[in-house]
Amino acid sequence: MIKYTLEFPIKSSVSVLFNAVSTPDGLSEWFADNVNWSGNIYTFIWDDSEEEAELLKKINNQLIRFRWLEEDEETFFEFKIEVDPVTNDVTLFVTDFAENEDEKENSTNLWEAQVNALMKRIGS
Questions:
Q1: What is the pTM (predicted TM-score) of this model?
Q2: Percent of the chain with pLDDT over 90
Q3: Most buried pick, 3, 10, 83, 89, via CB within 10 A?
Q4: Quick one: pLDDT at residue 73?
């Protein structure tokens, strides 16, 4: 498996961005058509498909990490928010895994499109 991290400058407050990447309502506005949650299990729904992910870690206004239930135990996808201490610029880091370089390229393109949708949704 190939672990990779993408970096996106975001013009938004940390709280608005964290809400968009960590709550079912926020995620359903840009990541999936609908998101439900029960306990630590989030159900992501797109058209006719649905996938479940376990919430592994959450640090308010900083990080949220999920693991797709159908994927390997050691893999995850993560949204991490950092603020530059000097400029106060906000950056979103997306970490994910791919099986090979082709999948990494396809996944990178998908993440870029989805984060662009996120930025439009939050006015970034």
A1: 0.92
A2: 94
A3: 10
A4: 87
Quick one: CA dihedral 96, 102, 108, 110, positive or negative? Answer: negative
Residue 94's pLDDT is 98
Say how far apart CA 124 and CA 121 lie, in whole Å.
8
- What's the fold here for domain 2-122? Alpha-D-Glucose-1,6-Bisphosphate; Chain A, domain 4 (3.30.530)
Q: What pLDDT shows up at residue 7?
A: 98
Contact 4, 96 (CB under 8 A): yes
The residue extents of the domains of the chain are 2-122
Long-range contacts of 99-102 (CB under 8 A, 24+ apart): 99/1, 99/2, 100/2, 101/2
